[in-house]
Design brief:
Elements lengths: L9 E6 L5 E6 L3 E5 L5 E5 L4 E6 L5 E6 L10 E6 L4 E7 L6 E4 L3 E5 L3 E6 L5 E6 L9 E2 L7 E5 L5 E7 L4 E9 L3 E6 L5 E6 L4 E6 L4 E7 L7 E6 L8 E6 L4 E5 H11 L3 H5 L2 H7 L4 E4 L9 E9 L9 E11 L3 E10 L4 E10 L12
Antiparallel strand pairs: 1-2, 2-3, 3-4, 5-6, 6-7, 7-8, 9-10, 10-11, 11-12, 13-14, 14-15, 15-16, 17-18, 18-19, 19-20, 21-22, 22-23, 23-24, 25-26, 26-27, 27-28
Length: about 375
């Protein structure tokens, strides 16, 4: 996630594919942290960076400069090895690079109106995709090789998206998700589901990728708000929960598991028989939970559900779901919350740790 605001010290932030590490780019350079311990693993202070993407926990980074120095052009992608601190390969483009995504076989480069798809090992161009103007580089990517999809906006005036299978190089489907243009989207790690939010930010929708059908609709709020990020919980089938960070400073958590359970119970009721499931989901807030004032209002943030544990029993209560939510704020802080949803869909949360990302001290070099 890149940030164009000059008021925040962090220009970009990203977690790696299994959320074990995360990277930030600043005007001084970039830094890599261990998500579990918060330890600063690697830093390089050579200038401003707007893209820093990791390949799992390997030593390979894809980095793009902010253009404040001639050597760090926003049109140049550098594949960088943190072990020996050398550039492995540079790729140059005619316009600024807006986003980069990777998995173990593919490298994807997002420009304003074009996408380049590379074989990661040989850096051979496999395909190019012409797109509608995508000024923010909005995209979603599932690194799973079995269901490796790339989602891109299909329109600048409505909230439709295109899903590409990047392993087989073909268009999978188009989904009409919202009336207003898209502001955020994320694919589940297994590539089965995609969540979207429009520029209105009032409704979050979840679609099943394979059938291109709408599975859930959740109301975030009544008043519009900018959605900064969406994140599914890391689960092999249906993700248990979905989190959204917004300009309001609150984090919204949606219980997909409870929504499914409620749907199965209401399908035989009179209301369920005359109102479509997606509509009843929007009207009923029972599976919507809010962390009020979790972060400063108006500050851009990136929230990720890193862990989800299904727990059957503790000493004090029955617990349906326990998860870890990590948040990077672009004013330079890391926050981590523990979330608990019990068998009655009752929600509780606590702040586990927070620290300043810019004052952390390097202990030792990052290794692959």
């Amino acid at each position: 996630m890149a940030n164009q605001s000059s008021s925040c010290p962090i220009l970009c932030a990203s977690f790696n594919q299994d959320t074990s590490c995360f990277a930030i780019g600043t005007r001084e350079g970039f830094r890599i942290f261990d998500s579990n311990t918060g330890r600063l693993c690697y830093e390089r202070a050579v200038g401003a960076f707007v893209i820093v993407e990791m390949l799992f926990s390997s030593s390979l980074l894809a980095i793009v400069g902010a253009g404040e120095q001639p050597s760090l052009s926003p049109r140049r992608l550098c594949l960088f090895n943190t072990t020996n601190e050398t550039s492995l390969r540079e790729l140059n483009f005619l316009t600024s690079i807006l986003a980069v995504r990777m998995n173990k076989k593919r490298l994807i480069v997002i420009l304003q109106d074009k996408v380049y798809l590379y074989d990661l090992n040989s850096l051979t161009i496999l395909d190019t995709i012409d797109t509608v103007p995508n000024l923010k580089g909005l995209c979603a990517f599932s690194p799973c090789l079995d269901a490796c999809y790339l989602a891109l906006p299909a329109s600048t005036i409505r909230g439709s998206l295109l899903l590409y299978n990047v392993m087989e190089h073909h268009l999978h489907c188009e989904i009409e998700a919202h009336r207003a243009p898209l502001a955020a989207m994320v694919l589940s790690s297994n590539g089965m589901y995609i969540a979207t939010a429009s520029e209105q930010g009032t409704i979050i929708r979840v679609h099943l990728v394979k059938e291109a059908t709408k599975s859930f609709s959740f109301r975030r709020g009544t008043y519009p708000s900018t959605i900064f990020s969406l994140s599914f919980g890391p689960y092999m089938q249906l993700p248990n929960i979905l989190a959204a960070s917004s300009a309001s400073g609150s984090i919204h958590v949606f219980s997909l598991g409870f929504a499914t359970l409620k749907r199965s119970r209401s399908s035989s009721s009179f209301l369920g028989s005359i109102i479509p499931d997606a509509v009843t989901d929007v009207l009923d807030p029972a599976h919507h939970h809010i962390l009020h004032n979790a972060i400063p209002a108006g500050v851009k943030s990136y929230a990720v559900i890193r862990k989800v544990d299904n727990v059957t029993e503790t000493t004090s209560e029955v617990v349906a779901c326990r998860s870890t939510l990590s948040i990077i704020t672009y004013n330079g802080y890391f926050h981590e919350y523990s979330l608990r949803i019990n068998a009655h869909n009752e929600f509780s949360w606590s702040l586990e740790r927070e620290f300043n990302l810019l004052t952390a001290v390097l202990e030792k070099d990052f290794k692959s």
